Amino acid sequence: MSHKTAFYLSSLLRNCVPLSAISQAKQTHAQILVLGFLSNVTLQTDLLLVYSKCGVLQAARQVFDKMSDRNMHSWNIMLASYAQNFLCLDALNVFDKFLKMGLRPDHYTMPPVFKACVGTGDAYLGKMLHGWVVRLGFEEYVVVGRLAFMFDALNYFRRMLSEGVNMDSMTIPSILNACGREGDLMKGKEIHGQVVKSFIFNRDVAISNSLIDMYAKCGCLHDSEKVFRNMRELNLVTWTTMISCYSVHGKGEDSLALFKKMGDCGFKPNCITLTAVLASCSHSGLIDQGRRIFNSISFDYGLEPSVEHHACMVDLLGRFGHLEEALGLVKNMKSVATASVWGALLAGCMMHKNVEIGEVAALQLFELEPRNSSNYISFV
């Protein structure tokens, strides 16, 4: 009976992901205390995860500190929570305790610690971590390798400035990309200032495109628009980047208006541009516009809709309950549907509680990704 109760409480916690569900999470936490299940490692980890996802880090830390048996998952959750909220010193303090416990980091441990190193400018620890990545064989994991590169890129930039070395047009976009991914707005602005001072760099389209992307990723869409408006020369990447920025910030109407303006200026979209504008429709719930653009891929532009285009369209239809239409779209794909397509369909089914189509999507996901435990958890 106690096992079933613990499983039920765990299920409740795993459904408390949105911030609006924090009250339910606290009620479930109270039930766990009353029923005497607080020593259950699974429930402790679920509590830690739900408080972290809801951004209630003080409660998450209290749960973490009271855990008598912390597993790797719990350490990684705490590290990621601090890093994602830019509490870099707290993340490094937790990592220090992690090491003192004699534990060995895995590929989930590394990314938040790299991010914390960038935030604090701890070059020594960053280099040590990079060495671990190589020795432990984690370079194959894209996220870890990318974060290691970002750390190196930002420190390379700092070293260049301190030593008076001139930057080049190949280096700057890479470092701006690192700033955007890490949300390092101050460093991004510092680089922008260096660009403005240079007559050559200030006219470089690739650098301007990177600035647009960096500002949007740091939450400064207005600055992205300002860079875009001040550019004397635009290429297809410029238009696509700005459309994508509007998409990420939920400004679907602006994204569509810019897409139309791009066409009026004589630019023909490529597959990446069309993916960006479809994603924008999905994020903003523009179903009719999304259908029109999806149909235009083949009819107006003579292209074959890609897997990414199908995934965006399935996500859009699924979000708003058009699950039969979404399933029909997947079945009519000329190429084999990937996990991203079936995952988008399953998410829509979960949202609208459609068990029948959800089972179809889940079975396909189990076959495509048998080792991905999140698929099983989602379906439960």
UniProtKB/TrEMBL annotation:
Keywords: Repeat
Cross-referenced Gene3D superfamilies: Tetratricopeptide repeat domain
Protein origin, superkingdom: Eukaryota
A GO BP annotation: RNA modification
Coiled-coil segments on the chain, per record: none
InterPro entries hit by this protein: PPR_At4g14850-like_plant, PPR_rpt, TPR-like_helical_dom_sf
Protein name: Pentacotripeptide-repeat region of PRORP domain-containing protein
Organism annotation: Fagus sylvatica (Beechnut)
Ranges of the PPR repeats in the UniProt entry: 71-105, 204-234, 235-269
Repeat listed as a keyword: yes
Keyword Repeat (UniProt): yes
